[in-house]
Write the structure tokens for this entry.
Amino acid sequence: MSAADGPVETVLARYAQAVRDKDVDAFAALYAEDVRVFDMWGAWSLHGIEAWRDMAGSWFDSLGDEQVVVTWSALQASVADALAIGHATLTYTAVSAAGQTLRTLDNRITLALRRQAGEWEIFHEHTSAPIAHETLQAILTRDGA
């Protein structure tokens, strides 16, 4: 099974749609009840779907009338029975109500999925960006690597 037709690609497509629609329920439905997220924004880690749902609600509310378009590149994934793991670079592009690009950033992501009752769910997510040694600032634009 290639990454292009596997569960990680499918989950990423659903993730992108939920983010674009600012649909907290669709977003949370991608995750396991016991999800553990090592997010790069604000908190060291989040545990449990309610904490992750709260984060998504705050994020989506902060966008006002903007939308965020999520795309990915360099996806690699492996599937074994009821487990799948994948990693990719996600690009988040904020778009105004008028369709203008406002800002963009890149984010590295690793997802661990398990199949429960025939559905794939994310039970672990880890996001990151490299840190510049000189400034200790996150590098949020991929350099093509």
Q: What stands out?
A: The CA atoms of residues 43 and 81 lie 32 Å apart. The mean pLDDT is 94. The chain is about 25% helix and 45% strand.
